[in-house]
Amino acid sequence: MNVKPVTPLAEAVETAMVDALRRALPETGRTEPLVRRSDRADYQANGALPLAKQHGRNPRELGEVVAAAIDAPDLIAAAEVSGPGFINIDLTSEAIWRQVAARLDVDRLGIGLPLAGKRIIVDYSGPNVAKEMHVGHLRTTIIGDALARLAEALGATVIRQNHLGDWGTQFGMLIQYLNEHPEAEWHHADDADPTANVAALDRLYREARTVFDSDPDFKDRARARVVALQSGDEDTRKVWRDLVEVSAEAFDAIYERLGVSLTAADLAGESTYNHLLDDVVAELVDAGIAVESEGALCVFFDDITGPDDNPVPLLLRKADGGYGYAATDLAAIRYRIRDLKADQILYVVDARQALHFKQVFATARRAGWLTDEVEAVHVPFGTVLGPDGKPFKTRSGGTVRLMSLLDEAIAKASDVIAKKNADADPDDLAALAAATGIGAVKYADLSNNRIKDYAFDTDRMVSLTGDTGVYLQYAHTRLSSILRKAGAMTASVDPTAPMSKEERALALHLDAYSATLTEAVGEREPHRLCGYLYALARTFTSFYEANPVLKAQTDQARENRLCLVRLAKDTLAHGLGLLGIASPGSM
Ligand code: ARG
After folding, report:
1. Which residues form the DALR anticodon binding domain (predicted)?
2. Whose CA is nearest to atom 11 of ligand 1?
3. So what CATH class is 9-91?
4. Pocket, ligand 1, Cβ cutoff 6 A
5. For a disulfide at 348, which of 39, 43, 124, 410, Cβ 3.0-4.6 Å?
């Protein structure tokens, strides 16, 4: 296996430009060549401009000196000063063809492993036990999974943590209610659909809440049940374990349907930290970080304020002695740093929890757990809105079940695919509909700027045209079909071949893949990868319209173009894979 990374051409150009700048201005220190892709040439380097200012030189004149000082004949064919002093750079066709060959020649398309040796925790999904997963859990699950896959692809050791809401006083209430209503049907009502059990539980949970709020006697019995649960009463624990197990089965069914990489091994729910809470809180009290306030235990901050600029404390323990969500997250962060040895912890959680994480991180920093060597980051995201751009509700005003949304997307995708494949085998069609419907949902979510709200419009997301997952999957099938028609021949690149404008654009875009991945991971923004892949599909289309592949005029052109097609197909499939989206070979 050849895993040696291929240096992107943009980086090679940077190196050549650093040399040129140094030759042109020997007295200067570190230089930034500022190389980027350009419409006018292959690349543009803007680095001479700030240097001219700094050294009191005429920028165009300095640009000429720098351009003349470039010494990379195998790489750079032409360098020309333009505008106020930019340098337009064109590469030799040979360097670009060689790059295509180099990427095809190595594993993993030659992308590097910049995150090798890093331990990155991704905290995502985190649904709540005894409740159905609803549309609110979609984004954390999809974005978190893409970030986990991306970091892994760049060499990180990724530890997925599914912080289930599986602990707290609400379970006392629910268990008490179930005890008092043995006739309530919820358990394994339908083996075929594990989400049905949770749907039933969700209903009972709401019933329990109503009784809890209206019947003080039940409230007392529910409180006693909480104590029983927390002190480890075996009968109570048994019901609790059952609730967790049945819920986890339902979550698994959704993860499987969604093609999300979370498994049972990644479950680390709130209950996991229960045995650490006393110790964690004691440590904070001893350090003077947590203080008593009106019977409760809190952390106060000078510089963190909530809505209306009011100072808000972080509540660790309520006056009744119960620990809450915050104490658990503090135990979790200490554990993740001390025991899991995290270098980075990403919390892929709704933007509405921003204040909570600010406070948790600040507390962990004060406690000395979170040091400068560790990066804890809240990766927030916006809300999923209904197709009309308003809050997403069912017709009767309820929350929208995630499973029914996925079913709807798959049904719509199935219509689109069936129209194209009138005589397809029904089983194939069903598999394809699942791949495209789920791909459509994921792509619609990931391609939107993470922090923005977006409207969940199934009709639009399954469209074969435009910036959709289905369009990208279709582009992949077109690439696959060209290669299939070309037969088993293994084409190889002739670097001396001439190069058309479209071949050049496609090859240079393909070469920017690894930089895009680094950027997407660094900014925790999968939509950058989506934008890249969409541009790839379009660049390929322009290429294909102007450059026949199978009917190319010469064997040399045909072979080189087949190599480009293969690299484009592999890159598209790889990128879709990192987004958790399937790449069918035909559709
Ligand atoms: N269960 C929580 C919710 O539904 C999400 C958990 C996020 N992770 C965390 N470490 N707090 O809002």
Report:
1. 472-587
2. 329
3. alpha beta
4. 123, 126, 128, 163, 165, 329, 332, 347, 349
5. 124
